[in-house]
Amino acid sequence: MVVRREALVECGWLERPLLADRVGKRLVSGGDVEIAQRIRNRGNPLWFTPDAVLRHRIPNSRATLRYLLRINYGLGECEALVSALGWSGDWRAWRRAAGRRAIKAAAQALLRSQGVVMVSASLSFTAGFIRGIASCIVMAPEARKALLGSAAPTRADGSR
User: Fold this and answer.
1) Does 157 fall in a domain?
2) Which of 3, 71, 135, 142 has the fewest CB atoms lying closer than 10 Å?
3) Phi then psi for 26, rounded to 5 degrees?
């Protein structure tokens, strides 16, 4: 990701990042998604360069089922928080929508016959998503207010 500093300043991410990225052994992420959403929703364009090549070495320790389940859990947790960033409604409506999404994802994972590994990975993501919802529930009201809708598209009248 390459970002103009002015865009980071304008979107407020430098002063107040809202999502944690990987810290220690926790496999959560979301900082890059938060940055992109906040920049985009301030009216700045995002560009994708398909010709760019990234080579990433993956150690054997990351090629295990245990790691797959842990990373999916972390990505699910992050996804719940990212969904709160882009939500333009109120807190209770987000909580209901996120809960319905988690139930639907779990049901889909169980109903698809994709093999044990795929079902386990899907359920791990869903469990992480539920953990993300729970972290919003126990958040201090002011922190939740700062998170909810902070990257929602701005309407023509300046509201979210």
Assistant:
1) no
2) 142
3) -75, 130
The dihedral over CA atoms of 134, 66, 82, 20, expressed in degrees to the nearest 10, equals 80
Number of domains composing the chain = 1
Q: What values do phi and psi take at 13, rounded to 5?
A: -65, -35
The amino acid sitting at 155 is R
Do 153 and 88 contact (CB within 8 A), yes or no?
yes
**Tens digit of each residue's pLDDT (9 = 90 or more) over 53-90:** 888 888 898 889 999 999 999 989 988 988 888 888 88
Does some domain include residue 17? yes
60 exposure class (CB count in 10 Å sphere: 0-12, 13-18, 19+)? exposed
Q: Residue 158: inside a domain, yes or no?
A: no
**Owning domain of residue 114:** 5-147
Residue 67 in any domain: the answer is: yes
Q: Which amino acid is at 73?
A: Y
Instruction: For residues 36 and 85, give the distance between their C-alpha atoms in angstroms, rounded to a whole number.
Output: 11
Residues 28-37: tens digit of each pLDDT = 777 888 888 8
